[in-house]
Amino acid sequence: MNSEANAMRAPGRITQFFLDARPDDWGLLLSASASAYGVGLLAMLVLPFMIGATMSGLGLDEAQAGFLGTVEFLGVTVASLIVAPFIGRLPRRNLALAGAALAIVGNGLSAMQSSYETLLFIRAAVGFGCGLALAAGNATVANAENPEKLAAQMSMLFVVLMVVTMTSFAHVSDLWSFKGVYGALAVCMLVMALFIFRLPQGTGQVHSTVEHPHAHRGILSISGMFMLFAMFAFALRDTMMWAFAERIGNGVGYGPDDLGMLFSVQAVIGIVGPLIATLVGSRYGLRLPVLLGIVLTGMVTFTILQSSKALVPYSVGVLFISGTYFYALSYLTALAAELDTQGRIVAASGGFLVAGVAFGPAVSGALIVRGGYELSSWVNVAIVAVTLLLILVPLSAVGRKADALPH
Predict the structure, then answer these.
(1) Strand, coil or helix: 284
(2) What is the distance between the alpha carbons of residues 110 and 104, in angstroms, rounded to a whole number?
(3) Contact criterion met (CB below 8 Å) for 223 and 394
(4) CB under 8 Å to 22, separation ≥6 — which residues?
(5) Does 13 have pLDDT greater than 80?
(6) CA neighbours closer than 13 Å in the CB half-sphere of residue 177
(7) Is the pLDDT of residue 178 over 50?
(8) Tens digit of each residue's pLDDT (9 = 90 or more) over 220-255
């Protein structure tokens, strides 16, 4: 009888498990995702198409095209860091909409340009607008009733956006070169701006969590600074591999069509990572999921960098890129949000993440020139170790916060 009763109760527990994973507030989820990812980090997803199309359309070399991306990402970083200390007092919806408007206009103007120097200036302005939207969207996570759950669901939508953009922008780039890519960016961001109108203006419109002991110091707290540098190291390590993933694929024998298929499949599989983070949430705290995410992403990048002449390990590594990355990013974002309910640390974390993205290719490229992919892979291991050491400080701060809560 007991076994039959347990069997009858099991489906109920499973159903409840998935019911718990449903968004608590669809408006909050969609608006925060649209602001942080649909505008703030959209260019990061389409960077390969943007650079390739600009090179062919304007006759640029790799250095010139790469510098366009660097200037844009530095604009994102600067904007995020400027507004982060004040994000608790700023009207976030207005800030995100202003950033989106600047990015939309900038992308439209970019599609009309034929001057490289003018384009550099415009892309920096676009990056600044994206940085405002990224900071506003990320800061909202800090005031959610369940930051871990919201961050994971936002990452899941980011993966969906990645799947859509990798398919659509490839065709746009083939048909209309860089003008089409920049025009499509403007259109996508315009659509995202419609969702941003649901973004809360400030902390009072969403749930608030308990402050940790040093929250009043925000970004300049020890835990805050260690969190930001951990985000930088995490993105630096990831982009060191991502920038050369296609070239490594060519080296193991994949053609352009095969690589396109492989990367599309890994993007689809990638939704598993944030889905797991959504279902698990904070059931096991933050320490184990965060540390596991950093280690798993490091293993994937190490495998790919070590597989410059091995097709099977390379293929397996690529299939796990998005899943492990977005799983880890979900929990890292949640950790930054838990440190400061005003959202200052998590707002700045997006800027440090993008800074890592901006510097990753240059660092990896220099290492590959000196010692090949082998050297880059072992430096990857060292950066994973540094990231783990850095993240222990904010994890400890959140642990003290949890101990201070009434039981």
Answers:
(1) coil
(2) 10
(3) yes
(4) none
(5) no
(6) 12
(7) yes
(8) 789 999 999 999 999 999 988 887 787 788 888 887
